[in-house]
TrEMBL record:
<keyword id="KW-0131">Cell cycle</keyword>
<comment type="similarity">
    <text>Belongs to the NAD(P)-dependent epimerase/dehydratase family. SDR39U1 subfamily.</text>
</comment>
<protein>
    <submittedName>
        <fullName>Cell division inhibitor</fullName>
    </submittedName>
</protein>
<keyword id="KW-0132">Cell division</keyword>
<dbReference type="Pfam" id="PF01370">
    <property type="entry name" value="Epimerase"/>
</dbReference>
<feature type="domain" description="DUF1731">
    <location>
        <begin position="253"/>
        <end position="299"/>
    </location>
</feature>
<dbReference type="InterPro" id="IPR036291">
    <property type="entry name" value="NAD(P)-bd_dom_sf"/>
</dbReference>
<dbReference type="Pfam" id="PF08338">
    <property type="entry name" value="DUF1731"/>
</dbReference>
<dbReference type="InterPro" id="IPR010099">
    <property type="entry name" value="SDR39U1"/>
</dbReference>
<dbReference type="InterPro" id="IPR001509">
    <property type="entry name" value="Epimerase_deHydtase"/>
</dbReference>
<feature type="domain" description="NAD-dependent epimerase/dehydratase">
    <location>
        <begin position="3"/>
        <end position="219"/>
    </location>
</feature>
<dbReference type="GO" id="GO:0051301">
    <property type="term" value="P:cell division"/>
</dbReference>
<dbReference type="InterPro" id="IPR013549">
    <property type="entry name" value="DUF1731"/>
</dbReference>
Length: 303
């Protein structure tokens, strides 16, 4: 297949590009500056989001588009300026993808648009599947709703649209896990807030395989939860992390301290939701890491 990726040089995009190439696909990465990129066999860079860029003229017939573009939600305090950037980067890039689709003479079969389980809101009591509606309105749920609404505009071109609602992605290189490691390695790990909040996690290897799975299964459309089948509460997650690292889990980080340190962004560690990947399970997706301890052992031991 010929596959376009927006955000192909990011955290997930790099891994997904590697998998697509290993599977024999040709990848076209959308970028603001193609001149400083070294093209490789099966990987080409195509400029977009510039006034003079015409990516539709540089692309061959495309089978699928993956949109991963957007400002990171976890790399800085949520000031008003940063919240605006988080929302607008997702809206603008998705709108640009839909515009690109409108200009392609041959339409792709599917748009896999990144999304997030933040859609469902926060709860310690509810269990969410792809059929669930949000339980509350907050910044993240509003961002995701607007993001998915923009992606849905692509359906007017009669292609399949999938909202890949990502859980907390576990990776040894980037993301939430790398921030959790330091206190444990300093023998100062412990519960964050109450410890009762749910963490719907997923190993990075399953993330990229689930994108590929959605690409190959035409029966998957609309919401698609990219989480493991075994979400865990934060206190249990910390105990398991401490066990894998052979470090204690005893020193709590109280909610008020995290709120003072992180502001509104503290919701990423103090609040959560229990999300199940009902569609992946019903479609017989085979997880590499369905359970937490083997996932953490794979990521952290012998590294």
């Amino acid at each position: 297949m010929n596959i376009v990726i927006a955000g192909g040089t990011g955290f997930i995009g790099k891994r997904l590009t590697d998998l697509f190439v290993q599977e024999g696909h040709s990848v076209f990465i959308l970028t603001r500056n193609a001149s400083n990129k070294l093209e490789q066999p099966s990987i080409q860079y195509v400029e977009w989001l510039k006034s003079d860029a015409k990516p539709e003229q540089e692309l061959p017939p495309i089978d699928a588009i993956v949109n991963l573009a957007g400002e990171s939600i976890g790399s800085g305090r949520w000031t008003a300026k940063r919240k605006k950037a988080i929302l607008e980067s997702r809206i603008q890039s998705t709108r640009a993808i839909v515009d690109l689709i409108s200009k392609l003479p041959t339409k792709p079969n599917v748009l896999l648009n990144a999304s997030a389980i933040g859609y469902y809101g926060n709860s310690n009591h509810h269990t969410f599947t792809e059929e669930s509606e949000p339980t509350e309105e907050n910044f993240l749920s509003n961002v995701v709703k607007q993001w998915e609404k923009e992606a849905q505009e692509a359906s007017q071109f009669r292609l399949r649209v999938v909202y890949c609602r990502l859980g907390v992605v576990l990776s040894a290189e980037e993301g939430a896990l790398t921030r959790m490691l330091l206190p444990y390695r300093l023998f100062a790990g412990g519960p964050l807030g109450s410890g009762n909040q749910w963490l719907s996690w997923i190993h990075i290897d399953d993330v990229v395989r689930m994108f590929h799975f959605a690409l190959l299964h035409p029966s998957i459309s609309g919401a698609f939860n990219l989480t493991s089948p075994s979400p865990t509460q934060m206190n249990e997650f910390g105990k398991t992390l401490g066990s894998v690292l052979k470090r204690p889990h005893y020193l709590p980080a109280p909610s008020f301290a995290l709120k003072a340190l992180l502001g509104e962004m503290s919701t990423l560690v103090l609040d959560g939701q229990k999300v199940l990947p009902e569609k992946a399970i019903s479609q017989n997706y085979s997880y590499l890491f369905p359970a937490l301890q083997p996932a953490l052992q794979d990521l952290l031991q012998n590294r």
